[in-house]
Structure formats: structure tokens, C-alpha cells
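Try this one yourself first.
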């Protein structure tokens, strides 16, 4: 290592990384400087002559101490962001070291086999059809896009239209049905795919944000032609999961394609205690989820899974004369994802699944739910604090003083306090604090300290 040009750089980066991780559990969670301060430190004109690499790393590390939000902190509860599990981070370092373009087997047999195995493990863990196609993408946005591209191909193929060759111009109209509470990434995917959002037929949801199966049944009875239905496992605000078994029966009756956006809620299938919440998800035709949320692998990593592998592959694959693509059992990732050049993001997934095993993954998921319930219990005991949702997974919606302004001021005050970090939302017309617990390292003490910090801010405003 001492004779390698990489040695000094990697040693310096290693030292900075360990220092950052060492301080992570106790540091102020929010960033401590604004854009202007960071620009003053980092935004100089491009130098004419380069600087020593170690010095560049030092500059970045110094600003990271004050300019990053500690998203990997065990007291970060914003946006359903997981931390980086130690073996996942270490595996990700190896991915950078190997620097493999994971597009096709011939470039990296190792990555192809690792991702093939990780895909098989995930289907088994979620108990989804084992013949499904699986692709590792950047996140649930692209996982939803990939699954809905396969859905578009599948429903049009069944009536004799090749959308990959002919496009949508002149194609039979496809009915798109989604919950009134569907995530924004569904709308964005539909835009990317040429469907647009105005044509989406919205199904009424209940008080917890679950699609109403009775309303879906009524709507489906009025539709003719190819249809794609988008359901949800894990409402982004409440964590509630749609009644998937009922929805699955309705879509099958009408020959529709059912897609499930399970960014974090699909992981309930990994827990024997929570599995019932996602009962019937196996009836769907496609599923999207994230690994960088509850599995706690580093950003970025989403997973697209499609029951009909032939539709999945037809919607994604590309060929060219210069490529050396397999015709055998080997896996070419380009057949399953929108990208060609891509990071070997399935490697940290493999490492984390193997290191945790079934029992460890189950414990990881259940811990997050336990900590969410703990925080909800502490907060709800305070006069003037109301929990707006049934805490079924890892999401807690909190309202303060039954007042929008007070609630928003508590959120801002907590972010400035720095003990923990969380965000706000609007739920059924009301401002609410949104707590998402998905970090592998969040302990009972972390949850308790964070809940008390929230109450301290509220009491200060009230007093």
C-alpha cells in the first residue's frame, strides 16, 4: 500500500470517515452552516494548478463536520432515510474500489452473480413469486418507473400493441388507476412513461390513507380496455398499507395489472409479527421498494420486481452490435434496469442480507416499529399533543396545540435544537410533524431523548 498512489489518499479518507462516524451518534443532527458559509469555504474559482489530494480531502472533511445533515444519525427521523449498516458501508467501499460497470456479465461476472443471488434472496424474503424479474435501480422513483414500464408493455402486448416499437401514438388507451394517497413518485413515473397525470383515476382513501377497496371495485366496473392499478404498501405519512388482498382479487377479476409501491412498507413481509399487514401483496404483478431505507444500505439503491419476467425484460433490455451479451444463464443487468453504465449497487444489498440473515432483518424492521411506538407513547402523554395516525409501522404523525402555526413552529424549533431531526407534512388539511424511524442504530435512549427534546420545544413555545 505504501508504494501505491492510492495509499495516502485512502488512508486519509479512512481517518476522516472514522472520525465522522465516531461523532455521529452524539453530534448536532442538523447542518450548522448555510449556503453562503459553505460557498465561502468551497466555492472558489477552479485553480489553475491542482492541489495535493490529501489537502482536498481535508477541506471536504472539515466542511462535512458542519455542512452535512447527519442523515445516518440514530436520531434522524426525516423522509424515511435509513443509516448505513456497517457491513453495507464497508461493502460499498469495495464497490468503489473495484469500480465495475455492472451493465453486463462480461464486464463483471462477480457483480452479476452477486446481484443474481441478492435478487433471489429478496424474492424469498418477501415471499414473492420466485420467477420474477429483479432490477437494482437508484431508488423507488426508478423502481416504480421500471415496474410501470413493464406494466405498460404487458397490458398493451396482451392486446397486440408493441409499445417499445410503436410508442404510444395511436396506441389503445390505457386506464391508470391510483389511490388518492399515492406517492408522488408514481405520478412522476407516469409522466416519464408518457401517460401524464391528468388521466389518472383517483380512488378514495380512508382516514389512514389506505385505498378503499369498495371504491376501487366500483371504478373498475366502469372501465374497459387495458388497465394498470397502483396500490401502496406503506403510506408516506401514516405507514398504513392498502388492503392488498381485496385489491388483488378485484384487479385479477378485471384482468388489470396491479403494481405495489412498497418503498418501505414491503419490508413488513420480513417480519412474522408484521407480515399480516401486507397480506395479499403476492397477488400483484410488480413491486417497488428501497434498500437504502429500511435495509440501511448506503445511497443509492432501489429494487424493481416484476412477476412477468418476460414483460420486465422486454420493457428494459437494449442490444447493440458492439455489446457482448449473454445468451445463457448469466445475468446481464441491462435487461432489468433503465441504465447501462451503473454502479454495482446490489453488492451492499448482498452483504447486508448475508450478514443479518432472516432473524437479523426481522429484528431490524421490528426495532424501528418499536421505537416509533415508544415515541408516540411519550408524546401522546403530553397535554396538547395529538397522534394523528395508527402507528402500525415506523411512521408517527404528531400535531401540537391542535394548531397549524404551533405545529410548524415546533418542527422548526426541533430542527434548530439539533437533538434530532424530523420534518413536517400536511395531513388531511392539517399541519403535522412527521417522524420516520428507519435507522438500524436507533436505541430506546435515542427515541426517549428525541421525544423529550420535542416536548421541550413545545413547552417552551407554549410557556
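Now uncover the answer:
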Amino acid at each position: 500500500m505504501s508504494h501505491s498512489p492510492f495509499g495516502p489518499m485512502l488512508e486519509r479518507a479512512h481517518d476522516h470517515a472514522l472520525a465522522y462516524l465516531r461523532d455521529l451518534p452524539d453530534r448536532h443532527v442538523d447542518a450548522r452552516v448555510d449556503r453562503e458559509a459553505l460557498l465561502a469555504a468551497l466555492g472558489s474559482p477552479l485553480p489553475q494548478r491542482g492541489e495535493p489530494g490529501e489537502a482536498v480531502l481535508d477541506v471536504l472533511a472539515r466542511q462535512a463536520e458542519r455542512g452535512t445533515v447527519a442523515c445516518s444519525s440514530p436520531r434522524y427521523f426525516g423522509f424515511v432515510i435509513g443509516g448505513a449498516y456497517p457491513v453495507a458501508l464497508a461493502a460499498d467501499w469495495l464497490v468503489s474500489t473495484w469500480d465495475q460497470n455492472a451493465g453486463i456479465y462480461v464486464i463483471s461476472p462477480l457483480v452479476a452473480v452477486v446481484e443474481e443471488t441478492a435478487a433471489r434472496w429478496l424474492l424469498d424474503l418477501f415471499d414473492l413469486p420466485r420467477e420474477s424479474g429483479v432490477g437494482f435501480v437508484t431508488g423507488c422513483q426508478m423502481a416504480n418507473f421500471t415496474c410501470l414500464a413493464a406494466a405498460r408493455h404487458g397490458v398493451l402486448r396482451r392486446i397486440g400493441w408493441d409499445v417499445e416499437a410503436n410508442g404510444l401514438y395511436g396506441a389503445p388507451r390505457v386506464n391508470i388507476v391510483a389511490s388518492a394517497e399515492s406517492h408522488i413518485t408514481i405520478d412522476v413515473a407516469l409522466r416519464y412513461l408518457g401517460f401524464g397525470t391528468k388521466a389518472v383515476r383517483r380512488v378514495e382513501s380512508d382516514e389512514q390513507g389506505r385505498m378503499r377497496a369498495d371504491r376501487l371495485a366500483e371504478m373498475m366496473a366502469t372501465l374497459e380496455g387495458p388497465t394498470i392499478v397502483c396500490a401502496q404498501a406503506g403510506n408516506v405519512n401514516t405507514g398504513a398499507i392498502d388492503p392488498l388482498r381485496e385489491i388483488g382479487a378485484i384487479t385479477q377479476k378485471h384482468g388489470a395489472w396491479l403494481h405495489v409501491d412498497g418503498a418501505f412498507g414491503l419490508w413488513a413481509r420480513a417480519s412474522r409479527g408484521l407480515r399480516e399487514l401486507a397480506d395479499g401483496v403476492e397477488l400483484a404483478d410488480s413491486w417497488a421498494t428501497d434498500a437504502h431505507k429500511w435495509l440501511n444500505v448506503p445511497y443509492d439503491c432501489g429494487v424493481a420486481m416484476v412477476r412477468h419476467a418476460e414483460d420486465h425484460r422486454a420493457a428494459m433490455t437494449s442490444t447493440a452490435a458492439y455489446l457482448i451479451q449473454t445468451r445463457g444463464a448469466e445475468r446481464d443487468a441491462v435487461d432489468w434496469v433503465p441504465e447501462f453504465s451503473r454502479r454495482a449497487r446490489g453488492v451492499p444489498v448482498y452483504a447486508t442480507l448475508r450478514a443479518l440473515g432472516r432473524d437479523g432483518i426481522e429484528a431490524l424492521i421490528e426495532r424501528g416499529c418499536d421505537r416509533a411506538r415508544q415515541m408516540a407513547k411519550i408524546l401522546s402523554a403530553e397535554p396538547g399533543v395529538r397522534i394523528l395516525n395508527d402507528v402500525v409501522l415506523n411512521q408517527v404523525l404528531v400535531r401540537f396545540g391542535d394548531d397549524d402555526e404551533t405545529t410548524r413552529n415546533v418542527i422548526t424549533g426541533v430542527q434548530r435544537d439539533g437533538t434530532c431531526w424530523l420534518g413536517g407534512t400536511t395531513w388531511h388539511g392539517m399541519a403535522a410533524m412527521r417522524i420516520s424511524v428507519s435507522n438500524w442504530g436507533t436505541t430506546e435512549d435515542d427515541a426517549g431523548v428525541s421525544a423529550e427534546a420535542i416536548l421541550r420545544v413545545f413547552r417552551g413555545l407554549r410557556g
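Discussion: The chain has two domains: 6-68, 91-352. The mean pLDDT is 96.
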